[in-house]
């Protein structure tokens, strides 16, 4: 049974150490990404040392905020025994690596992140595979603009090395006062994991289940071929578990994982229907379909989004079209390096 939801601040980004269950505190850390605002890391107090789920972005302000939150709990940064990281995006992983350099803290992450961690080379740019995929989607202009992104000094020095050990699907992380079960939930990234504390009724969900937004799909150095299919399957894995509190990486803690998973599944079902409708109307590439659909809660056109958001949108539609091919509704052909879709039959 889930713990009752402890009172949270009205603004989920308010700094501090906010209790979500006995011995578990949520610490929001600001991000240099205005659309995300902050990332929640979760501090688990344990007699053998603090365990922190996710870590924040490796930058001085984030380190200072985490240090201050731990001080409120009577702890120091060096009291963190290990970081358990849900996936390898910088806002979750990089500060764990930076603190390991300072204090020798143990860092673990899902094994499925290994291909992207091994392949990452800042000399190739931040999104080399996405540039290739955008060209296949019939979006050469977006691809050229993404390829032209510069890599700044902070990005060149961002920690992005290997963990001390991997977290495997089905593994149980045994602490003195609780056990955390590891579930592989690929989709947002191929190695994303969630951690479930069945005894306390908590799901440390990372970016897999977010209360207010839908996560990007497959934004990583080595994306898998079918990220949306994996994501939907991972949602159903979580939905089949007994319901718990949702402890997300971005947004407030909410009482029910199930309610939000159902909303996410319905959202993607609606997007699948809309994408199929656009192909039925004569659009044949992911870029053409994406340009014909509304984006964000403000129902913006693709051309009105910034280049990074255009990239995410086009690749998301390509993932939806791939699912429609798997469902037998569409067929895909590739000519001249561009993938085109049509109604099957």
Structure description:
By secondary structure, this protein is α/β, with parallel strands linked by helices. The chain has 10 helices and 14 strands. The strands form 3 sheets. A 7-stranded mixed beta sheet has the order 1-2-3-4-5-6-7, covered by helices on one side. The protein has a 5-stranded mixed beta sheet with strand order 8-9-10-11-12, with no helix packed on it. A two-stranded antiparallel sheet has the order 13-14. Helix 5 (140-147) crosses helix 10 (307-326), helix 7 packs antiparallel against helix 8 (257-280) and helix 8 (257-280) packs across helix 10 (307-326).
State the low-pLDDT regions, or none.
none
Strand content: 15-25%
User: How many DSSP-defined strands?
Assistant: 14
Helicity range: 25-40%
What is the fold's blueprint, element by element?
Blueprint: E1 18-21, E2 24-30, E3 38-44, E4 50-53, H1 60-72, E5 80-85, H2 90-103, E6 106-110, H3 114-119, H4 128-136, H5 140-147, H6 153-156, E7 165-167, E8 172-174, E9 179-184, E10 193-197, E11 202-206, H7 227-239, E12 245-248, H8 257-280, H9 286-291, H10 307-326, E13 330-335, E14 338-343
Parallel strand pairs: 4-5, 5-6, 6-7, 11-12
Antiparallel strand pairs: 1-2, 2-3, 3-4, 8-9, 9-10, 10-11, 13-14
